[in-house]
From TrEMBL:
Location of this chain's protein in the cell: Mitochondrion inner membrane
UniProt domain FCP1 homology: residue ranges: 185-334
Keyword tags: Membrane, Mitochondrion, Mitochondrion inner membrane, Protein transport, Transit peptide, Translocation, Transmembrane, Transmembrane helix, Transport
Gene Ontology cellular component list: TIM23 mitochondrial import inner membrane translocase complex
Domain of life, per lineage: Eukaryota
Family (UniProt): Belongs to the TIM50 family.
Entry coiled-coil feature ranges: none
Name by which UniProt lists this protein: Mitochondrial import inner membrane translocase subunit TIM50
Transmembrane segments: 108-129
Function, in words: Essential component of the TIM23 complex, a complex that mediates the translocation of transit peptide-containing proteins across the mitochondrial inner membrane.
CDD domains tied to this protein: HAD_FCP1-like (cd07521)
GO biological processes: protein transport
Pfam families per the UniProt record, alphabetical: NIF
Length: 391
């Protein structure tokens, strides 16, 4: 009786002649057959040799029993393979069913979202397309009242959408500042427009403190030197009012800043897919642009009036910075000189990489020229007639 426990795969087995001692049987397989036997055996290449507990000289009945046992093993293995194939097919079928189910759920989710968006859009168009009502709740006639109701609703909704877009993009008013002060009040001759973010203060954020604003060195001196009576100081910032208002109150306790304009006074322009820029339109200031100087670090902010602008480098918190001191000296020189058009002066200094440094260099050259001693007039050695004869 052979000690056989497990067979994975078998093909046609060939039983060789018994060994001379009558106890060794030789079973050979094809190259493509993979199988495993747990018993006492000797392995030679792809041949399996089994030891039997039977008699030394196997008779015909022993060989018959051996062949019957091999057939039973083959039948069992075929049944196992068939069951395995069925399980694999069933698992593959379940996987395909799950994928189809997930795809169906995704399509259903997309369809529900589309229905929701379309429904929301229809409700929005209907709400925006309704005419206004008076105090008694009666509809107010407009330019679309004579049209069919459906057409009037669509056109009225489109008009309201454009008005909302303009309200967001355009400045809050085309006249941002009041008229210049009449006599006997004093109106400064020049207008200085300032951005405060990264020009006068720098925002910093920390996990403990949150948002904080660092004051630039020389702010107090700058406001004192450039305030009235030389300049009418106006803050024109892209920051919202609820953020900038308390900052300005802290920076200017003496009231040198006469007017404050915030983000709603800027013109918004979309730039790219996820953002935009806030452009300052100086033509809305109600002031003579010949005497308006705008100080900012962002060239995109003053793209409408580049000649009136003086671009500074963005301040990032350097405590040794002296830009505001130099800027105050430069602006005072313009105001004291009484130029009719500040844009000509700004155009001249913009040809340098650093206008303030160029102004300082010109100032040093002028001071050195004034410090030179005057030249002595030459004494003539020739005789010339005079009141008392020759001299």
């Amino acid at each position: 009786m052979c000690l056989i426990r497990n067979v994975q795969k078998l093909s046609v087995l060939h039983i060789s002649q018994p060994h001379q001692n009558g106890r060794l049987f030789h079973i050979s397989t094809n190259n493509s057959i993979k199988w495993r036997l747990s018993c006492e055996f000797c392995r030679r290449n792809r041949d399996m040799r089994f030891y039997s507990n039977g008699p030394k000289e196997p008779d015909g009945q022993g060989l018959k029993l051996s062949g019957q046992l091999t057939g039973d093993l083959l039948k069992t293995k075929v049944d196992i393979d068939n069951n395995g194939d069925k399980q694999d097919f069933k698992g593959q079928e379940n996987s395909e069913h799950k994928e189809k189910k997930d795809e169906k759920k995704a399509n259903m989710f997309i369809a529900l979202n589309l229905v929701f968006i379309c429904g929301f859009g229809v409700c929005g168009v209907w709400w925006l397309g309704q005419p206004g009502k008076d105090q008694d709740g009666q509809p107010i006639e407009d330019e679309f009242s004579h049209l069919p109701k459906f057409e009037a609703t669509l056109k009225r909704a489109w008009r309201n959408i454009n008005l909302t877009k303009e309200a967001i993009a355009e400045p809050s008013d085309r006249k941002l500042l009041p008229d210049p002060l009449p006599e006997p009040y004093y109106q400064p001759p020049y207008t200085l427009v300032l951005e405060i973010k990264d020009v006068l203060v720098h925002p910093e954020w920390g996990f403990v403190t949150g948002w904080r604003y660092q004051k630039r060195p020389g702010v107090d001196y700058f406001l004192q030197q450039c305030g009235p009576p030389l300049f009418e100081v106006v803050v024109y910032t892209s920051m919202p009012a609820y953020t900038a208002f308390p900052i300005i109150n802290s920076l200017d306790p003496n009231g040198y800043i006469m007017y404050r304009l915030f983000r709603d006074a800027t013109e918004y322009k979309a730039e790219g897919r996820m953002g935009g820029i806030h452009v300052k339109d100086l033509s809305c200031l109600n002031r003579d642009l010949n005497k308006v100087i705008f100080v900012d670090f962002d060239s995109k902010a003053f793209q409408k009036h580049p000649r009136n602008s003086l671009g500074l480098k963005q301040w990032t918190g350097d405590r040794d910075d002296r830009t505001l001191v130099d800027l105050a000296t430069f602006l005072r020189a313009i105001a004291v000189s009484g130029v009719d058009d500040v844009r000509k002066v700004l155009d001249y200094y913009k040809q340098y990489d650093d206008p303030l440094e160029a102004f300082k260099e010109k100032k040093r050259e002028l001071a050195a020229e004034f410090e030179k001693p005057p030249e002595q007039p030459k004494i003539s050695t020739k005789w010339s007639p005079g009141f008392f004869g020759r001299r």
